[in-house]
Amino acid sequence: MLKTILSRLIQTVVVVFALVTFTFFAARAMPGNPFASDKATTPEEQAALEAYYGLDKGPIEQYYNYWKNIILHGDFGDSLSMKGRKVSDLIAESFPISFTLGMTALILGVLIGVPLGVIAALYHNKAIDYIAMVIALAGICIVAFVLGPLFQIFLAKPLSVLNVAGWSRPTDIILPAITLCFGSAAVLARLTRGGMLDVLSQDYIRTARAKGVPPLKIITKHALRPALMPAVTYLGPAFAAIITGSFVVENIFLVPGMGQHFVIGITALDFNLIVALVFFYGILMGIANLLSDLALIFMDPKLRNA
Amino acid sequence: MSTTASLVTPPVVEKGTSLWADAFTRLKKNKLAILGGIVVILILFLCFIVTPILGWTGLDANAQDLSNRFANPGQGSVLGTDQLGRDMLMRVLEGGQISLLVALLATLLTATVGIIYGGIAGYVGGRTEAIMMRIVDGLLAMPFLIIVILLRELISAEVEEVGRFFVDNWGFDADLVLRFSNLAPLILAIAAFGWLTMGRIVRSAAASLRRQEFVEAARSLGLPHRRILFRHILPNMLGPVIIYATLTIPAFIMYEATLSFIGLGIEPPNSSWGILIKEGANFLETRPLILLFPAFMFSLTLFAFNFLGDGLRDALDPKSSKD
Asked: B284, A153: Cβ pair inside 8 Å?
């Protein structure tokens, strides 16, 4: 168990370091100039801006300074596109929004996907199974950017309770969260169904049945835990999918989350913002994967001794 | 879905039936997969054969006609026109061309890289295999779409440079090269990180094949590695590769559309289903058809490829077909 955690931690550190290093140099190698879009920038003013943000130095020196500022001052740098703002402030503002939205969507996804998968497996090769799996596939194929506008027109417009877009009322989370949850709900349904089918054909389930254990108890007590393993393994990647999915959903519903910052960061070549966001996403993914590892260890006694 | 019908009642295998014939018998019984296959062929036919023919007859996806904006379907053009009076039918078809082209080329690249990398790791085994797969694990732990966005931005200038070289020195058509050099960075960026799962699948297939008797027999007969790889390992890996490639195509279509939707993918003069959906969303209230046509084709294509892929998995690899 310790070995699993430790190797995941080491992996996360290596991956995040590689990711940050790559992004740091990649952002600087991208064609364009972060200050080119600023109004009335003479070459002198541009040089002054570059000097102010330390971009006039060589890339290696910049890289060294970047880590030095993080380690000594906990400073991830200033935003180049939003002047006078620290990137850490921008992330601190937008992260709770993205997190609330993402977590709501993920929980919704689990609540929809897992029961759907279990039901499909119980009615294997019957009409209910086919219907559930076609619904699940629809969740994968009718993607957020088709679903979002459709929701806006068919749900938000007629129901005056819901705003079409924006993030000012508590109810504003409903539509983006539903839009965002479909993809992971669909994959979770497919994985749960697969896991369940696998488990239901095992001998110990047949034994339980032969002993006359009530069907519902067989499912909840004996089958569900091992059947959920593939779905739990997917929760780490699902988290990543929800993060990137939120780029689109935040864009459609005008949610002031981290997604907009990333898109703006790329188009405006805001180096510090891009690197800090990738840094943050990398750590988040590491945590998500670690949590999913821990859940698996908790669920499967065999893994505990490994 | 329809998954394990073949598991429950194994088909009667006649003597001498090859793996492929056997799989095809199973596939034929899966109506959804066959339907998916037919739709895939139809869409490919429409986008890559019908579209150029329509183009020769004078239809143009980019020809604007401001006096004929938002025409209803049937008024002069089959699917009507968009906000600039462009023919929707041609726009949807040409958008599909680009969407499919990006996904197909990226899948081809991922399959090639995945087979080579996974094949080497699985066949060589031991320490090399462990290190190679550790690298794959690490890369898989990175956020895919974010890396693709960064890579695409990073290499776009270089690709344009290469494109210009082709035009200047080898007399390639400038317009065509310009359009392709807008797609190429996206294709390369998707493929650069898209091959990882394929690599894993190929590795596990190769690793299990390596230990099988017929491969050992071939080795003990003193056959060279190259011959073992090409005669015995590769043909037996085709099943999982084909299955996964079929399921990769819709995923890549989706990634391309997602990136184009947020403005970090395909750029004009190219357009893809993602771009059309993005544009259509602006006129959703008054002209829903402008969104619905590309959205329908896009979702239909994803459905068809997924049904076909699932069916192929059931047919070629009944044991692993659970989800």
From this structure: yes
